[in-house]
Design brief:
40% of the residues lie in helices and 19% in strands. The protein is α/β, with parallel strands linked by helices. It folds into two domains: 33 residues; 86 residues, no CATH class.
Amino acid sequence: MNGYVADSGETVDFKDNARMHVHAGTVARYEYQQDHDLYPVEMHVIRLGDIAIMTNPFELFLDYGNQIKARSPAAQTFIVQLACGSEGYLPTAMAENGGHYSAYVSSGITGHAGGDLLVRATIEHIRKLWE
């Protein structure tokens, strides 16, 4: 036999390099999360007249986008996701508590604490542009 039986009853074929790579990536993300409190990302905030545009490397839950737009002093705030990289989903606490697939370690590098930090940092940078 080329695989093993996991607790879920699923047989994993060790010759299936694609699936093994996904599982290895999940383990690496989990280990990173255990060893680091922060995950550095590239983000940008620019002002064009009364418009703010921000970029980030995540796929945000709607709640984060709504928080940023509601707290922004700009007349309109545009959020460009999956820019300067692709770090996966950025789940909310509700998604994590509900067991949503986007909150799995395999779906993103950080959890809701990273989302809260991204919102605060984005608003801080936008407000500096309006001072």
